[in-house]
Amino acid sequence: MAYLEVAKNIEAGNGVTNANKEIVYHWPPLFSLLLALISKITISGVFDAGIILQVSLFYCFVLVVLMLLRELKINFKLIIFSGVLLIVSQVSINFIYYLSEGLFLVLLLLSFYLFLKWLNTEKLEYLFFSAFFCGLVFLTRYAGIAFIGCFMFFLLFLQRDKPALRIKNFLLFLSVFAIVIAPWFFYQSTFEENSVARKFAVHIIPFSKLLDLLITFAYWFLGSTLAMVLFAGLVLLYVFHFQKLRAGLKPLLRKSFEKYKNVLLLSLLFITIYPLFLIVSISFYDAYTPLDNRILSPLFPFILLLITLFLQILKEQRQKLVLYSSMLFLFLSFSSSVFPFYKNHYENGSGYTKVKWTQSEVVKYLKDKNFDIITYSNGIEIGELHIQKGFRLLPRLSENSKLEILKEEVYSGEAQIIFFKEVNWRNYVVSEQNLMEIFEAEDFLRFEDGFVIRKFTSE
């Protein structure tokens, strides 16, 4: 919802700001800028612009991965199969929400693809555009700096060129990247309240969160009972064919490593450095960052890339039984975990489209009455999505002056309060108990899922 709010303000000419006209720098601006741009071009509003953008990004996501595999000269059937796996993977879920992960994935893969093109052709324009898209990656999610750091590390230490040429390539990459992101920092400096987005504090990551990381990785491939049963069978198949596989696998692996060395090194760097970056970030900057499918999704395409390279080796070794069994396991594993999610999403919704919101008694009441007064709420997103009205956030309990103003506005008939019981992520605003102490019982109109507080006349 923060992205949509910023997009609306950009479209209205208020810049990268929130409803209070304060700069929003906790998240980079690119996703909101694209929402505003599409909304302006199509005259559709930011909600429909989000649908257009996310659908387009999903097609681009699959297309870029297919282009990448084609660049690596992977077997055509395996390329198509990998595209199918992307469509039925847990990562595809990111594209159904108004979140920046889809854009981040597309831009990251484009920069990776162009970087590999540069390594294969040594044409500097590919390195230039790879750095350009890395800048856009950073302007989509600050966490992109982990991947960008891997590119720079590769340029300095893993290239075979002479040191002078490596430094030259590194400086070109760094310069382009810096030029792309510089306007954002300049823009921030024009606001008086500018400060760092995340403050340093020590809160070492707990073991339970590290466990979440491993569970997320495991769920990508073993997310259903069927997947776990099939995996056990696949392991047995590999054990029985071990001797046969070992005979021709070693020289083929050596040959494949030489052929795919750059992509292997970069992918392994990403898979190693990004989780370490998240652990450091959680421990010292943002303790609330979850290690879930959304946050870890940038790693999935590179893990899938390594799997596809292994399938290519099996094909070249003509291990048809092992190859087709592995492919069958991957398809059934992915689809058996993601299809139930999409079925539930279609039938019951998810996020802000859940049945509890679409069929909310409070929402229905507000739609029927269509009040044209100031509305304060603990669920401001619900107003935007389901009533198409802007709600103001309820004050904190410590904000006494704001609470007094709120009370005066309610009793003068200028404002109302909408409280949703199911909103459990804003415990810092005034609670139901606090509101009961501030207002009289006759000021409440109660529903099963919340209540309305206003000056009632004859309704």
**Rg (CA only):** 26 Å
| Secondary-structure element pattern, one letter each | HHHHHHHHHHHHHHHHHEHEHEHEE
The proportion of residues in beta strands is: under 5%
How much helix is in the residues? 55-70%
Terminal residue distance = 33 Å
Q: How would you sum up the major sheet?
A: 5 strands, mixed
Q: List low-confidence stretches.
A: none
Domain count: 2
Which strand order spans the largest sheet, edge to edge or round the barrel?
2-1-3-5-4
Summed over residues and divided by their number, the pLDDT gives a mean of: 91
- Number of beta strands: 5
* Structural class estimated from helices and strands: mainly alpha
User: In DSSP terms, counting alpha (H) and pi (I) runs of 4 or more, how many helices?
Assistant: 20
How would the global form be characterised?
A: globular
What report would you give on this structure?
With 459 residues, the protein is mainly alpha-helical. The chain has 2 domains: 2-348, no CATH class; 355-453, no CATH class. The chain is 66% helix and 4% strand. It contains 20 helices and 5 strands. It has helices at residues 2-11, 30-42, 46-71, 76-87, 101-121, 124-138, 145-158, 163-189, 207-221, 225-240, 242-259, 261-284, 293-296, 300-316, 320-348, 355-358, 361-369, 380-387, 400-411, 432-438, and strands at residues 374-377, 392-393, 415-420, 444-447, 450-453. A 5-stranded mixed β-sheet has the order 2-1-3-5-4. Helix 18 (380-387) links the parallel strand 1 (374-377) and strand 2. Helix 2 crosses helix 3 (46-71) and helix 6 (124-138) packs parallel to helix 8 (163-189). The protein is globular and about 85 Å long. The chain starts with a helix and ends in a 6-residue tail after the last strand. The model has no long low-confidence stretch (mean pLDDT 91).
